[in-house]
Amino acid sequence: MRRRIFDLCLIVLVALSVGCSKHRRDDQIINEIEAKIAADPETKDSKLTVGAKNGKVALEGTVPTSAARTKVEQIAQEEPGVSAVDDETSVEPSLAAGAQAVAPQSGASTETAPVEQSPPPPPPKPIVVPAGTALTVRTGQALSSKDSQTGQTFIATLAQPVSIGGKAALPAGSTLSGTVVNAKTKGKIKGEGQLDLALTSVSVGHHTYQIQTAVLSSTVKGKGKRTAATTGGGAAGGALIGGIAGGGKGAAIGAAVGAGAGFIGGALTGNKQIEIPAESALTFTLRQPLMLKPQS
Known about the structure:
By secondary structure, the protein is α+β, with helices and mostly antiparallel strands. It is built from 4 helices and 19 strands. The strands form 5 sheets. Strands 5, 7, 10, 11, 12, 13, 14, 15 and 18 form a 9-stranded antiparallel sheet that branches.
């Protein structure tokens, strides 16, 4: 009877010892597999969880390549005490790419060389039309010492282009504004008629510039004598270029008053007034330089 009890106790102790040894063996299996995976260059970047129960190993997580997955499974199967391997890993290529981005090459500098930038081109220079430049314009309406009023505005267009340094500064057809500086009607018995004109602005492209020109002044006295002068600087004598070639009123005007060139007065009425018909060509002289924005 005592012998039987002893044998039973021995069996229980052996069973407990075997169970404890198996539990420690599972821990040892996990530790060994994890260490070998971390040490292998092909599998070291893997993100795995290793489990073991009674010699059966379970692998979960991600590996960088298919070859790394095969190598991880091989490491687990070759570990002593492993009876089976359940591989639930998946391939994640970004693991390998991330490892290469993080680890700099041996001996390579991590500093980025500065990029040299070329200096910006200098801004274009403005165009300067110097003082003394002649502006030949064509009037947009009739002007006279009788009907025009002092301070009245008139419109004209540039008849001839102005170039500076071989480049067009003021193209033909540019719009100009002028003012009647003085308009005085001629009396029938005495007194003189007078008509003074000046340009005040010019429009080029989308910009309008204020300008100063010498005043074109014309007077008519007693018995129809006419005089003309350019005041405020510039050439002596106003310039009436009868009309612009090509037809229109200007052509007829040119034929009628061609002999009067050099006078601002285009014709005299019965009352001996100063008349400048529409489309008459007049030449003004800049008193101050004109600075234009650079052409794009």
